[in-house]
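hey m, so remember when u said the tokens were messed up on ur end? i reran from scratch. heres the input so u can diff it against urs
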Amino acid sequence: QVPLVESGGGLVPAGGSLRLSCAASGGTFSSYRMGWFRQAPGKERELVASISESGGNRVYAAFVKGRFTISRDNAKNTVYLQMNSLKPEDTAVYYCAARVGGVQYDTWGQGTQVTVSS
């Protein structure tokens, strides 16, 4: 297991921006595909964005395309999620996750709350 620690969540008005960070300690961060997920109350967890080991491949959910950007700094063992033009429906707990052992995301952070007020 590779501990993942998210930060950067908070309360922001609609239209605002936040940048989430997820720092990994231990392991070989540069060999893990990383993802950001979110879970709103009463809803299932959903993938927001993912990024390949080198950062060359990025995948986004349709509902965040053009508004969110995932990036990583392998020298700092950190993955980021820049969120712009936030909407109230983006309110959720955001989790980062790593694919350490194979094709599944098997390592998770504790989550950070993002609340967007209307």
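this time it looks ok to me. The chain has no helices and eleven strands. if urs says something different then somethings off w ur setup not the seq
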